[in-house]
Design brief:
Distance between the termini: 37 Å
Low-confidence stretches: none
Number of helices: 11
Radius of gyration: 26 Å
Structural class: mainly alpha
Order of helices and strands: HHHHHHHHHHH
Helix content: over 70%
Mean pLDDT: 77
Number of strands: 0
Largest sheet: none
Shape: globular
Length: about 350
C-alpha cells in the first residue's frame, strides 16, 4: 500500500491549499479589485483627513473629518468640471465624430500618401508604402477596434466605481482598530514583530506610490495641455487628458498615449508631427529620470524586466486594472520576501531568540 510520509503529506497539503487560494482569488478578482481601488483612494486622501481631523472638535472624530474631505473633493471636482469640462467634452465629441473618417484614411492609405508627398518622397516609394499599408490596414483597424471594444466593455462594468468612496470611508474609519486586532491575534513576539515590519513597509510603499501616480498624472496633463496649446496641436485638452490618465498604467500607458497623440495629430493634418514625436520622447525621459525619482524617492526598487513581466501578466489576468496593480503587488511581494529573509537570518544568528521546543 502506497503511503506518504508526514513531510510529503504536509508539502502536498500546502501546495493544494495554496493552489486553491489562488483559484479563489481569481474567482473573486472583481470584488477584490474594488477593495484595492478603495484602499488606494483611502491612501490618497488619508493625509488630508488627518489634517482636517486635527482642526475639528474631538467629538466629531474621524467620521466627521472624512465627511468634510469628501465634501471638499466634490466641490473641487465641480470646479474642475466648470473650468475644463466643457472644453474637454467638446474635444472628445469631435474626436469621436472624426474616428470613422480617420479609419477610412488609414484603410485607403490616403493619410500616409499625403504625409509622405509633403515630405518630398518619390512617387514610387510612396506607392510601395501605400500598398503595404492597404494590405495590412484590415488587421490594424481590427486590432484597434478590438482594443477599443475591450476598453468600452471594461468601462461598462466600471459603474461599481461609485462604491470606492463608500469602502474607502470604512477603511479610513476602522483601519487602525483592524490593524490592532490583527496584531493581537499573533501570539509569538517574533512573528508579531515581523508582521509589524511588513505592514509598515507596505503602508509606506502604497502611500508613496498612489500619491506619486496622481502627481505624475497631473504634471503630464498640465504640461501637455500647455505645450499643445502653444504648438497649435489639435484637441489639446482631450489629448492631454488621455496622456494624464494613461500615466496610471506602467510602461504600456505612456507608450499608448504617445501613439494616440501622434496618430491623432497626423490624421488631423498637423504640420509638425515629428516635433510632436520628439516632445513625447523627451517628456518620457523627463518623467522617468527626473519627475519620478523626485516624487517617489527611492522608488519601488524593481528591475525593469520584472516590471514589464508584471505588467504583461497583470494585463492577462485583470486587463487595465491588472496592469495598474501589477507594480505595487510585485513591490509588496518583494517587501514580504525581504522581511521574511531578514527575520530568518536574524534567527539563525541568534539561536537563543528561537522559541524552545515544547514551550
Amino acid at each position: 500500500m502506497f503511503l506518504l510520509d508526514a513531510r510529503a503529506a504536509r508539502v502536498t497539503w500546502t501546495v493544494l491549499v495554496f493552489a486553491a487560494g489562488l483559484g479563489l482569488l481569481y474567482l473573486l478578482r472583481k470584488p477584490l479589485l474594488l477593495f484595492v481601488f478603495s484602499l488606494f483612494f483611502a491612501y490618497l486622501i488619508f493625509p488630508i483627513v488627518r489634517m482636517v481631523e486635527r482642526g475639528i472638535p474631538r467629538q466629531g472624530g474621524r467620521p466627521l473629518a472624512i465627511g468634510v474631505v469628501y465634501l471638499l473633493l466634490l466641490l473641487a471636482l465641480i470646479g474642475v468640471g466648470l473650468g475644463v469640462g466643457s472644453r474637454l467634452t467638446e474635444e472628445v465629441t469631435l474626436l469621436t465624430e472624426k474616428a470613422p473618417q480617420m479609419s477610412q484614411q488609414i484603410a485607403s492609405g490616403q493619410i500616409i500618401t499625403d504625409v509622405l508627398q509633403k515630405r518630398g518622397w518619390e512617387s514610387g516609394r510612396v506607392r510601395q508604402v501605400e500598398g503595404a499599408l492597404r494590405a495590412h490596414a484590415g488587421q490594424i483597424i481590427g486590432y484597434v477596434q478590438g482594443a477599443l471594444a475591450a476598453i468600452l466593455r471594461w468601462l461598462a462594468g466600471a459603474w461599481v466605481i461609485v462604491l470606492v468612496p463608500v469602502f474607502a470611508f470604512f477603511i479610513l474609519k476602522d483601519a487602525e482598530p483592524a490593524a490592532a486586532g490583527i496584531d493581537g491575534l499573533i501570539e509569538e513576539p517574533r512573528h508579531r514583530e515581523l508582521w509589524r515590519d511588513i505592514a509598515e513597509d507596505v503602508h509606506l510603499l502604497l502611500a508613496k506610490y498612489v500619491r506619486a501616480l496622481i502627481l505624475l498624472s497631473l504634471i503630464t496633463f498640465v504640461a501637455w495641455s500647455a505645450v499643445f496649446f502653444l504648438a497649435g496641436v489639435p484637441y489639446p485638452v482631450g489629448l492631454a487628458a488621455i496622456g494624464g490618465a494613461l500615466e496610471f498604467l506602467p510602461i504600456v500607458g505612456p507608450l499608448t498615449a504617445g501613439v494616440i497623440v501622434v496618430s491623432v495629430a497626423l490624421l488631423s493634418g498637423y504640420a509638425h508631427p515629428w516635433l510632436l514625436v520628439a516632445f513625447v520622447l523627451v517628456w518620457r525621459g523627463i518623467q522617468d529620470y527626473v519627475s519620478s525619482p523626485l516624487v517617489m524617492g527611492r522608488g519601488i526598487e524593481l528591475h525593469p524586466a520584472v516590471v514589464i513581466f508584471g505588467v504583461i501578466a497583470g494585463g492577462e489576468i485583470g486587463g487595465p486594472a491588472g496592469m495598474f496593480l501589477s507594480v505595487p503587488v510585485l513591490a509588496a511581494l518583494r517587501i514580504v520576501w525581504r522581511r521574511v529573509r531578514d527575520a530568518r537570518s536574524a534567527a539563525a544568528r541568534n539561536p537563543a531568540a528561537r522559541p524552545r521546543e515544547g514551550s
